[in-house]
Specification:
Elements (H helix, E strand, L loop, with lengths): L2 E4 L2 E4 L4 E2 L7 H10 L4 H13 L3 H14 L4 H13 L3 H18 L2 H13 L1
Helix pairs in contact: 1-2, 2-3, 3-4, 4-5, 5-6
Length: 123
């Protein structure tokens, strides 16, 4: 049975809703991403699942790829900067966050811009 993400719920290949007791695992997200590798939501979700599992290196790399493919993905820049900071890559984190500030300015996300600027001030 194929299961895919459709808006805010999962449905089977027959179109019937599938009950999901919790968020999909990283492996499940990866399977969905394998089917649709261009899906930015799934790319971001797999990266965040890696971070949740403590695999910050993989998360940072996945977010780097997402930032390269979509330079306006503000959340990817911010999360990547935070993860790099956790990896004690402070200089790179600062550079990434400054690029994230520029992305936030391009898309008009003043809230994310302010949050990233505040985070930069803590580095």
């Amino acid at each position: 049975m194929e299961i895919r993400l459709k808006q805010d719920f999962f449905e089977s290949d027959s179109g019937q809703p599938v009950e999901v007791a919790q968020m999909p695992s990283r492996e499940q997200l990866q399977l969905m991403l394998d089917v649709n590798p261009a899906d930015e939501f799934l790319q971001y979700s797999v990266a965040m699942a890696c971070a949740s599992e403590g695999n910050n290196e993989a998360a940072a790399e996945r977010l780097k790829n997402l930032c390269l493919s979509n330079p306006d993905h503000v959340s990817a820049w911010f999360q990547r900067g935070q993860i790099l900071n956790r990896l004690d890559e402070t200089d790179e984190a600062r550079e990434v966050l400054l690029l994230g500030v520029a992305a936030a300015q391009r898309v008009g996300d003043s809230h994310a811009e302010a949050e990233m600027r505040a985070f930069i001030d803590t580095l």
